[in-house]
Write a structure and sequence with these properties.
The protein is mainly alpha-helical. It folds into two domains: 75 residues; 176 residues. The chain is built from six helices and two strands, in the order H-H-H-H-H-E-E-H. The chain has a two-stranded antiparallel ribbon. A hairpin with a 2-residue loop joins strand 1 and strand 2.
Length: 273
C-alpha cells in the first residue's frame, strides 16, 4: 500500500510535466504560424520574429520553472510521506514490544503459580485449599498504557481483530496485576493474624488459632481462594491473547507497509529443527 502511494505521486508529476511540454509546443507552433501569415513586409517579419522569439523564450522559461517547482513539490511530498511511514512503523513497533513484555510477565506469573503447586504436592498438601498452596507472587507489578497512535497503523490496515486484541490484552493485564497485588497483600495479612506456630516439617508450619483469630481469618480465606482461582483463569485466557498480539503484528504490518524490513517476533522454538 505504501509503495502504491509513492507510485501515485510520481505518476501525477509525470502527467503534469507531459501536459506542460505539450502546451508549450502547441503555443510555439501557433505563434510561428501567425508570424508567417501576417508578416507582409520584411520589417513586419523581423518584428514578429523578434516578438515570437521573446514569447517562446518566456514560455520555455516558464516551463522550466514549472517543471522544477513540480519536482521540488514531489520531493517534498515524498519526504513527508516517508516520514509519516517511519513514524507509523515506530508506533506499532512500540506496541509489539510492549505486548511481548506483557507476554513474558504472564508466563512468569503462571510459572510461579505452577512451581508453588508442585512444591505443595511434594509436601502432600494436595488436599489443602488453593490459596494455602500458592505463595504470594513477587514481581514489579508493571502495567502499560496503550496509546491511540500505536493503534493507528492497525486501524489503517483495517485489522480490527488485532486492534481489539491489543486493547483487551493491556486492559486485562492491568486487572490481572491488580489481582496479583491484592493476593500478595492478603497473604501478608494472614501472616499478621497467624502468629503462633508449634513447629514445622518440610517447610510446612503447624499453627494454632484462637476463636478470634479464626473469625478474622475466615473472610480472608474466602477472598484469597476466589482471587487465586480468578488469576489462574485470567492467565488461561490472556497468554494466548498476548501470543496473538506479539506474534501477529509483525506479519500484518509487513503486508500493510508492503515491506519485509518490519521486524517479526516468532514464538520460542519456531523455525528450529
Amino acid at each position: 500500500m505504501a509503495q502504491q502511494n509513492i507510485g501515485t505521486v510520481k505518476n501525477s508529476v509525470v502527467q503534469l510535466i507531459t501536459v506542460g511540454i505539450f502546451g508549450a509546443m502547441v503555443g510555439a507552433a501557433v505563434l510561428l504560424f501567425l508570424a508567417e501569415k501576417f508578416a507582409a513586409t520584411s520589417d513586419h517579419a523581423t518584428l514578429l520574429a523578434g516578438f515570437g522569439g521573446a514569447v517562446i523564450g518566456s514560455v520555455l522559461s516558464a516551463l522550466v520553472s514549472f517543471i522544477l517547482a513540480k519536482q521540488a513539490s514531489a520531493e517534498t511530498l515524498l519526504r513527508d510521506f516517508e516520514a509519516r511511514l517511519a513514524e507509523q512503523k515506530s508506533y506499532v513497533l512500540r506496541l509489539m514490544v510492549k505486548a511481548s513484555v506483557v507476554l513474558s510477565d504472564l508466563v512468569a506469573i503462571r510459572k510461579a503459580i505452577d512451581e508453588s503447586l508442585s512444591n505443595a504436592n511434594d509436601r502432600n498438601l494436595t488436599a489443602e485449599p488453593l490459596w494455602k498452596r500458592v505463595l504470594p507472587i513477587v514481581g514489579s507489578y508493571q502495567t502499560f498504557d496503550i496509546d491511540a497512535a500505536e493503534l493507528s497503523p492497525l486501524i489503517a490496515a483495517k485489522d480490527n481483530a488485532l486492534m481489539q486484541a491489543s486493547v483487551t490484552l493491556f486492559m486485562q493485564h492491568r486487572n490481572l496485576i491488580e489481582a496479583v497485588r491484592v493476593y500478595a497483600d492478603l497473604r501478608g495479612r494472614v501472616k499478621e493474624i497467624v502468629v503462633h506456630h508449634f513447629g514445622s516439617s518440610e517447610g510446612v508450619l503447624t499453627s494454632g488459632l484462637t476463636q478470634e483469630q479464626m473469625s478474622k481469618l475466615m473472610p480472608l480465606e474466602i477472598e484469597l481462594e476466589s482471587l487465586i482461582k480468578t488469576i489462574r483463569a485470567m492467565l488461561t485466557d490472556l497468554i494466548p491473547l498476548a501470543e496473538k498480539v506479539t506474534f501477529e503484528i509483525g506479519p500484518a504490518m509487513q503486508k500493510f507497509f508492503g515491506s519485509q524490513d518490519f521486524p517479526v517476533f516468532a514464538p520460542k522454538g519456531a523455525g528450529e529443527e
